[in-house]
Amino acid sequence: MGKSIVFTVTTDLNHDQRMQRIAGTLANAGFSVTLVGRELPQSLPLKPANFKQHRISCIFLKGPLFYLEYNLRLIFWFLFQKFDIYGTVDADTALAGIITNFWRRKPLVFDAHELFPEMPEVTHRTWVKKVWAWLEEKAFQRSDVAYTVSGSLVHYFQKKYRAPVHLIRNMPFRKPFTPSAPPSTPYYIYQGALNVGRGLENAIAAMASVPAQLMICGDGPLADVLRQQVQDAGLQNKIIFKGNVAPDELSTLTASAYAGLMLLDNQGLSYYYSLANKFFDYVQAGIPQICVPFPEYQRLNEEHEVAVLTNNTVEEVRNALLMLLNEQQTYTRLTQNTLKAREQWNWEQEGPRLVQLYNSL
Hints:
It comes from Rufibacter roseus. By secondary structure, this protein is an alpha/beta fold.
């Protein structure tokens, strides 16, 4: 057995496809991998995997006390667990990683999946932003290897912290493509967390005059607000809330969708420089998408035109939704382009670079 690696996240492991993919790939490469996440009251039993999984239950479920409690519980757990490599994922587990690295003297890897100080929930809260910025800075300073998910973030982090940062994009595994019969009523799909700045309010409002449905797969802080918006607008027959969906079922739902939604508000550099996994998930499913014209998405769409790029306003989103329904020539072209892009944008192409990074430690 190769070196042991532990990854720490604050997500529910069953729904964290990115970390499941990373942990599984490194386990297949010969590493002994442990993935540590949180256990929520509604968490389902962990699914079998080729790596170890451990969940931590907290008294506090959100806010500063949750993050503090979770990191303290991680540090205490590390007192009785030894690993060759400590993988800290994002600033929200950085405190535990930094402290453990200080006294264990083992390599620390920082996976900067998000630009935490620039997230919409943080960017206008001065003191909260300072705390996350301090943790992020210390994580970069202490790490032996750092990587992130987009070229824009690589440039940002390298310029700010004057340290090398590697690019490991968040791409799905390549899946066999089998065209599915379209449902009787076409539906657009959104997959991901129901958080501030994801464009969901505008998408729901835009659907009022679009002859299709919108399926929302995910959960989060905005769930109740969005359900109330749907009820107030009388759109219960057009907007379908699926909640958190298991990865296999999500793949099936996405492949049967008419198109995907990849909308964000420009509420901080974390979103503006992002490269969300759902962009690639839609491509791998062989469906076009409606996407914001932020730098990474523009760059990829120039390489393979798979999306209608539109600003996140109700009117522009509505126009894009209608265009895909009414202009079949455009829809067909974008669909055909996804079939070409999926051969390049997949984890089989990206994963070996991850393995190479960890082999260098």
